[in-house]
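dumping this here so i dont lose it
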């Protein structure tokens, strides 16, 4: 599985002109604490609600970057997306925790 760093993510958020799809698999209560703009929320606990329509939610021909708290749930989501035929899937290493620690300390840590 390919990965991107939080530094890559920060650059993308500053210049989001390219066609990267951003997915956050954290739970709604986690988003209330800390979130980044431009992400589609697909919480893993709601898998039954969104999994059957994933082809409508995410473009198969565009790159997808997946975020969670530390990088474990996003890695599982990346594996699942690849099993569904998505080929340009990348895990954001360290998750939002690393983004807060390394990029923007105003993002709350939890």
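and the seq i came up w/
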């Amino acid at each position: 599985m390919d990965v991107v760093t939080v530094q890559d993510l920060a650059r993308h958020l500053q210049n989001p002109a390219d066609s990267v799809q951003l997915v956050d698999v954290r739970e709604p209560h986690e988003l209330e604490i800390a979130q980044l703009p431009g992400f589609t929320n697909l919480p893993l606990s709601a898998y039954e609600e969104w999994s059957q329509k994933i082809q409508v939610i995410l473009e198969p021909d565009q790159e997808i970057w997946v975020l969670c708290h530390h990088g474990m749930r996003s890695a599982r989501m990346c594996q699942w997306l690849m099993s569904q035929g998505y080929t340009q899937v990348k895990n954001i290493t360290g998750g939002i925790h690393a983004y807060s620690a390394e990029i923007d300390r105003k993002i709350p840590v939890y």
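The domain at 2-102 is CATH 3.40.250.10 (Oxidized Rhodanese; domain 1).
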